């Protein structure tokens, strides 16, 4: 009886620790994994800009069309609650910055039909692309070793990764990063 109780308590302690770790390192908007001072120069956007994916209407989009813009690239899925929750915030961010050469792109780890149905029921003004399994591969090449969603990558006008966010976005941090990228360089 005592052995069963201790075993149950041990499992409970492990689950609580794991839950805290997931929250602290992945879901928390202020997670240490979301450090603004990280160097992302080892991440290449070449594969991203060579990718062609269908939008919600099935029209193939070449991602190279976004070169020269500040890109907020959000990997998401319809089955992911934090992904769905942050979409209205990303939509507002897109509307705020689109006139300043900033684009938000949502790449769904979904088949086209699933993403299309979701977009009909929950429309956003920024481009949505269906990446299915290719989305997970692209996210991995852009630093998402965990394969978790949502995953957001900020790319500057020169095509360099400047910041990544694993888990739910923090709009103030995104805006701070975007504002910094839009500032003219000192002469």
Key terms:
187 residues; alpha/beta; Glutaredoxin; 5-stranded mixed β-sheet; two-stranded antiparallel ribbon; globular
Summary, kept brief:
The chain is 42% helix and 18% strand. The chain is an alpha/beta fold and 187 residues long.
Folded structure, characterized:
Helix 4 links the parallel strand 4 and strand 5. The chain is built from six helices and seven strands. The strands form two sheets. Strands 5-4-3-6-7 form a five-stranded mixed beta sheet, with helices on both faces. A two-stranded antiparallel sheet has the order 1-2. The protein folds into two domains: 1-30; 35-182, Glutaredoxin (3-Layer(aba) Sandwich). With 187 residues, it is α/β, with parallel strands linked by helices.
Secondary structure layout plus pairing:
Elements lengths: L1 H26 L18 H4 L2 E3 L5 E3 L7 E7 L4 H17 L4 E7 L3 H10 L6 E3 L1 H10 L9 E5 L5 E6 L4 H12 L5
Parallel strand pairs: 3-4, 4-5
Antiparallel strand pairs: 1-2, 3-6, 6-7
């Amino acid at each position: 009886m005592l052995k069963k109780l201790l075993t149950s308590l041990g499992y409970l302690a492990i689950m609580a620790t794991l839950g805290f770790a997931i929250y602290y390192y992945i879901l928390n908007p202020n997670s240490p994994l979301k450090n603004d001072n990280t160097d992302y120069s080892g991440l290449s956007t070449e594969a991203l800009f060579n990718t062609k994916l269908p939008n919600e209407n099935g029209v193939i989009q070449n991602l190279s069309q976004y070169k020269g813009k500040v890109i907020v690239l959000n990997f998401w899925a319809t089955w992911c609650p934090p992904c769905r929750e942050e979409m209205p915030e990303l939509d507002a961010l897109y509307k705020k910055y689109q006139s300043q050469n900033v684009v938000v792109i949502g790449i769904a780890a979904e088949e086209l039909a699933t993403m299309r149905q979701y977009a009909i029921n929950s429309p956003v003004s920024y481009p949505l692309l269906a990446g299915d399994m290719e989305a997970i591969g692209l996210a991995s090449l852009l630093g998402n070793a965990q394969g978790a969603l949502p995953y957001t990558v900020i790319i500057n006008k020169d095509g360099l990764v400047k910041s990544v966010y694993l888990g739910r976005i923090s709009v103030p941090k995104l805006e701070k990063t975007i504002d910094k990228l839009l500032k003219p360089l000192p002469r």
